[in-house]
């Protein structure tokens, strides 16, 4: 190798590494990416090429290490120079008050104490050692004094900086934090495992622990793990600041992710208020938390308080209600959905979990029942977290009663008796009855009438049940043939409510093309796809005439969706229903292909948060979409504007911290009026 080529490669590798660190920092610590994922990947690939060609260029902090390295035979043991402690728990406000009182007594202080309130992440505790700013070791907590060396696995986690963002790093710096798996990542990993017929993880914490315990770090690299840092261990060559909050701010500046919901509360009453706020937001967070950790903010006071056995006196974990509980599986019923999917539903002895009483949980599909090995009568563990419906996650085999019964998956649809079939390549079993099946019909009608579809006020589940069971409605088109007298004669109905319903039905005749398309319930055509199809084709006629190839010209429409759309419009029964609906007077204005003048917000991303008084979220969203804006669910540096109503929470805080424009309802309405929408 030529010395010059050698030097060129070296300086190119160094430059690439610097760029990749910087982009990683912008992405994870600042939430302000400046290049696309594809551009990042191409820089990374170039560095990989160079390192492959010149292996001597490979360094411990190279971003290429994130893809994983050769599998280990076993993990080495790491002794923690500063032990990794645990926390005492509090289960009520009273126990938190007692904690605060103990601290006042011990310190002999009368004034309010400032506490840092931190979400208690439900993941795996880790210790990360940086020497001269470079990540050299990652270790699990183990028993607190010694854990396992998981350096190769930790390096694969993109939000963990491989090098601290500072010119003057401490000689040695140990960061303590929690590695966790966001709920979406957990659902994805489990869905993939289900597809492959493999065992699923019980909860995100187990999945995170399982992913970190891999001897093959390329497996860890494939799991979307993340980290929140919350403390330090060994520190050498850096003077600790005065407060825990300042220490967290320093960690963030060095590129370590710190939870954005962390707040300082003055006095214990602030701690209790923080608990209430977080409990109500728990379900909406993208990750599991099992409580809140309160820590005395002042580090000198922490020092004075010290430790008892393995826990600090200056901190306590206020636990939330558990998200998992055991109960008995009383029976399994099979529900038929709109597309005929037959879903096994567990009937349970009611149990309090995740803050509510649960008596039903999903068992997903036939394969899942097989994998769990559940029988009726078993004690099962159920989990309810976030917005996800409760699920049966495991069976307590040692508690199986003698008379536990096997679960039989039906061969015939429990509602219409048609054969239940498995479509090649799918795990779900489907009733083959189509709209002959009353269950599928009811679901189709429910979907048609729903708020985001035809929005027929008053046509709820109970009424749909009666209408279908009594033969008053067979298809959605029959809704528009309903008469006053038979309606008024139904259970829980009277002249007035029947008339109100007829008025709502009449009103729904005037709609929009996106709503109508969505209401038809074409498989895989959700609200966004319906909107994209409508604005691309402008009219139902154009859409109906489109080939699968033409359909795929619409953004977001791939071969699967194109196929379902074509199949729907080629199906005689669907053609008949659409014709009947149009004959019943359903109409909408055709859409002009969108022009720049109508779309003053084109290219902008808006976020709605809190409650708006004069219009619903859906209405506000529709208006923004009409003006060309994209409406996102989360705030990032790319957000152009946040509309914040009363009750706005973390999205507002985040917008403020990122300097994103925030408007209130009045300003939002004024903007709509200026653009001809009211
Ligand atoms: S502080 C000396 N802060 O909870 C204090 N721990 O029960 C040590 N955890 O093993 C811990 N979020 O895995 C602290 N914000 C947070 C935390 C947190 C989660 C976990 C951690 C620890 C366990 C203690």
List its salient traits.
5-stranded mixed sheet, 24 helices, 7-stranded antiparallel sheet, 678 residues
Largest sheet: 7 strands, antiparallel
**Proportion of residues in helical segments:** 25-40%
Shape category: globular
Bound molecules: 2-(butylsulfanyl)adenosine
Stretches where pLDDT is under 50 for at least 5 consecutive residues are none
Number of helices: 24
Number of strands: 24
Mean pLDDT over the full residue set:
91
Cα-atom radius of gyration? 29 Å
What's the end-to-end separation, in Å?
Answer: 71 Å
Written overview of the protein:
By secondary structure, the chain is of the alpha+beta class. About 35% of the residues lie in helices and about 20% in strands. Strands 14, 15, 16, 17, 18, 19 and 20 form a 7-stranded antiparallel β-sheet that branches. It has a 5-stranded mixed β-sheet with strand order 2-13-10-3-9. A hairpin with a 4-residue loop joins strand 14 and strand 15 (about 340-355). Helix 1 packs antiparallel against helix 2, helix 12 packs across helix 13 and helix 16 (about 515-520) crosses helix 17. The longest helix has 26 residues, at about 5-30. The relative contact order is 0.07. The mean pLDDT is about 90.
